[in-house]
Known about the structure:
InterPro entries: Beta-lactam/transpept, Beta-lactam/transpept-like, PBP_dimer, PBP_dimer_sf, PCN-bd_Tpept. This protein is of the alpha+beta class.
Amino acid sequence: MRIVFYKWRMGLLFLLLLTGQTACSSPSAEVAAQEVQEPTETFTQRRVVVGADSLVRGRLLDRNDSVLVATGTLHLLKLPRKAPLDTLALAKLLGWGPPTVRQRIANALPYDNAPAGYPVNLRLTAAEAARVRKARKEWPTLVLSTQVGRRYTANAGAAVLGYPANEAQAFFKQAQRTKRGRFYKLRNGGVEGYYNGLLTGRVGYLHPLIDSAGNNRGSWATDTTFRQGQDLHLTIDTKLQAYAEQLMGNRKGYLVALDPKTGEILAYVSGPVYDPATLTAPDQAKVRSEMLFDENKPLLNRPAMLANPPGSVFKLVNAAVALQLGAITPTTGFKCDQTLIKCVHDHPRPGSLTVGLKYSCNPYFYQTMRNLIQRVPDSLVADTVAARHANLAEWRRYVRSFGLDSVLGVDIPREAPGFLPTPAYYDKVRKTRNWTYRSIYSLSVGQGEINMTGLQMANMTAIIANRGWYYPPHLVRGIGDNGPLPRFTQKRYTLIDSANFAALLPGMLGVMQRGGTAETSSLADVGITVAGKTGTVENGGDDDDDHAAFVGFAPADNPKIVVAVYLENAGFGATAAAPCAVMVMEKHLRGSIAPKRKRWEARVKHRARNGY
């Protein structure tokens, strides 16, 4: 009975479900569903560019707000390719003089003996272009055109200013053809390359979503705002930069001057020097070709990219570390024992650190470093090899706090880190762990495996001037209406106590005084006290002279300028590098060179022009 009732109930339920399905799928139900469905809307995604016509690349201005580089109109004169050219008449038209016309044309050709009719474009000033326009009827074969490009108002600061890569394509192709681009790392670009994004600015993009009626229905992507190209306010003093370049001229080397209180670079010279417009100008093809093959490598950005042994200027660092680690005291004296290492200066016995620095006594610093490396802690009495390894590692740790063996982070591309040897390095090179101090003593006089860049050498001197701290050197003090990049406002400290830096000052003052290695470069006659240190760097070549180095700051009691100079194959630091440094100091602090040094200045400039 229960089974029959259950079957009857399941059948009834199945019938009801079947009836419901039929009702849902009926035509009337489908029509009803279509009547309540929302109509499908069509939207259009658009992309609107904002500010493309008003975007201008930012300018470069010096620390006194003088415009150095700006985007403007360049006037180009295309010479006829077939008809003979009357250079005398053209010179009269442009107001150049026949030799100038011939030289300008020769510089525009990529190589000597270029075929007749090779296309030549000469840059003109606005006034010269106006003369050509007025003489169109007399000169129908001349073609005058204009283009937008970077205009340089000064002929100094090439290594600082750099170039936009898009305007240097002709140069890159020349370098590629001559296979010199890789060697020179030519895509350096200076501050133009480093700050390219900020200088260029950016257009804005709107992303409206438009309905079929033309109404804005929101955005289909995130909008971006228009940003005009930012001006860069450089730390460079144009007048000081131009003066320093006159002292460098065609010589190989570098000169870096900076404000120790801020890290702002006042002058940045890489020699041989050249006009900053050379690498992008359309009429400088031959000049660029000559620079690519020049054995003096003018395109190498020496202050940032070239690391060399610093020579005796490094004695300042070794002395500071030795004082900190207790290897010597300011009153420690040593015999000038030339059986240890040769000393080129004839001087009294160095009975203190001050005397050792004043006369740059090599045996004094040999023994200073020996005390540091060969000291044996109680825990390592039985293992002098381990003691030397530990001492060298400790020395290196303190020296690295000066910003050495690492990039300082200056705002210019391709900065080299330099090099400081490690114990593991000597294990590998000497092929034994049992190396002795005698095999590494060259570190005591800044030779051997130590390598420093010009920026590091200047920064090292700023640290001494500040008694142990520094701001990273930089070339841009303001971006638009703002200050420099944040990292350039962060003070950094070394591991050396300020008292140990103060102990170096009497010796650095002695260098510039009577009997000191740079006594002839004193500025005492104009009331400026200079603290300095000379260096003469052996280069290992029998036919080439040694390199000359000098570092210093002034005024000694309140430093406002630090200068580091390095002249390759120039001889003694006292006679070659020191004069350049102190004249830059005097120019910055006084604005002019005293009459007493005018003949000296003329001699330095003459040597600079002639490259020796």
